[in-house]
TrEMBL record:
Keywords assigned by UniProt, alphabetized: Ribonucleoprotein, Ribosomal protein, RNA-binding, rRNA-binding
Keyword Mitochondrion: no
Annotated Gene Ontology cellular component terms: ribonucleoprotein complex; ribosome
A molecular function GO annotation: rRNA binding
Chain's role: Forms part of the polypeptide exit tunnel.
Family in the record: Belongs to the universal ribosomal protein uL4 family.
Name of the protein this chain belongs to: Large ribosomal subunit protein uL4
Assembly, per entry: Part of the 50S ribosomal subunit.
Length: 211
């Protein structure tokens, strides 16, 4: 059981909220982040093999009676510009991670921010209507001055638009909440609908996307 700070719509601390979150296991967080990074890899690295290089396949010179080593075509890997042996080819780096582990990782990421007192839940964003200066005023009132990075999670498009121009704020919709982005930023701020969506996601047994 952890105690979370709930901010009023004006950015002032309004009350505390009790939540049940698991103990943090760094290895679980590592496994989930590794899984996320593997899914995001493009896997497009490629080199040309001997059969792909643009050289004639004609034999360089006669096999015998030259006094030189025997060779085939100019595309052989031992020559400059020749094909690469065992070079990278396009591949899919993604793999399957159990849904229970993904959900546990998300819960632990929330717990990690909560234990440091860096998880805030906002009841709203009063006065924020799409302008950066409006969100900056709200954040300053909430004690977020830009000295540390913030992950802002809200379904309100106007609030996300207002915050996304600030270099120290990363914004996400509630369905995009994931372990990697939580751990990358020093503070996590969710509005109440986003917090409830996260709790429902952790409690559900259905299929999920990135944890």
């Amino acid at each position: 059981m952890v105690t979370l700070s709930v901010l009023s719509a004006k950015g002032q601390k309004a009350r505390d909220l009790e939540a049940t979150l698991p103990e943090v296991n760094p290895h679980v967080l590592y496994e989930v982040v590794k899984w996320q990074m593997a899914k995001r890899r493009a896997g497009t690295a490629a080199t040309k093999t001997r059969g792909m290089v643009n050289f004639t396949t004609k034999k360089m010179y006669s096999q015998k009676h030259t006094g030189r080593a025997r060779h085939g075509d100019y595309g052989a890997p031992i020559f400059v510009g020749g094909g690469t042996v065992f070079g990278p080819q396009p591949r899919d780096y993604s793999y399957t991670l159990p849904k229970k582990v993904r959900k546990l990782g998300l819960a632990m990421a929330l717990a990690d921010r909560a234990k440091d007192g860096k998880l805030l839940i906002a009841e709203g964003f009063e006065g924020v209507n799409g302008k950066t200066k409006e969100f900056l005023a709200w954040a300053t009132g909430a004690g977020l001055d830009g000295s540390q990075t913030v992950l802002l999670v809200t379904a309100n498009e106007l609030v996300r638009r207002a915050a996304r121009n600030l270099p120290w704020v990363r914004t996400l919709a509630p369905e995009g909440l994931n372990v990697y982005d939580i751990l990358r930023q020093e503070w996590l701020v969710l509005d109440m609908p986003a917090w409830e969506a996260a709790q429902a996601r952790l409690a559900s047994q259905g299929k999920g996307g990135e944890a």
